[in-house]
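anyone seen this seq b4? input:
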Amino acid sequence: MTGRKSGAGRYRAAPAPARAARGGPEAVRAALRWPLVRAVVQRVTQASVTVDGQLIGAVSEPGLLVLVGVTHDDTDGKARKLAAKLWGLRILDGEKSCSDTGAPLLVVSQFTLYAETAKGRRPTWNQAAPGPVAEPLVKAVTDELRALGARVETGRFGADMQVALVNDGPVTIIIEL
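predicted toks r here
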């Protein structure tokens, strides 16, 4: 039972923020609708991005495929923080990170990570940043990864991309910063 006991043994519901807090940080963010930079990270044995039949980026050895979504208030600071998190994320074999093993990363922009599906059957992407805001921030993530020493491949921002991968494990992690 949640809430507080009131007279006659009845329970009354706790206020909404208190209920959200018991659900952990994710529940609090959902209750307050805080937009965050999002990334879906998949441990892969191989992955590639093709545009118009042309191979744009690929990793042909164990590494990470990272789908990055950007919202309106994301900053270069968040991009750097995401890059550091990705570089040190210990989800490769033996609980190792890309920084430990030199494993490559394939980074692909993915505005659909901000799909809003609460109403109706057609998603909206109002929380996704427009291209002129999102593109430099996705580039900031890849630039920071390279500055950290990572081998980085990318997709093509705004293109209709075909992404192929072999998920290893499968291991898929959602990161929100």
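Residues 131-148 form the longest helix (18 residues). Helices lie at 16-22, 25-32, 76-88, 98-101, 131-148. kinda curious what u guys think
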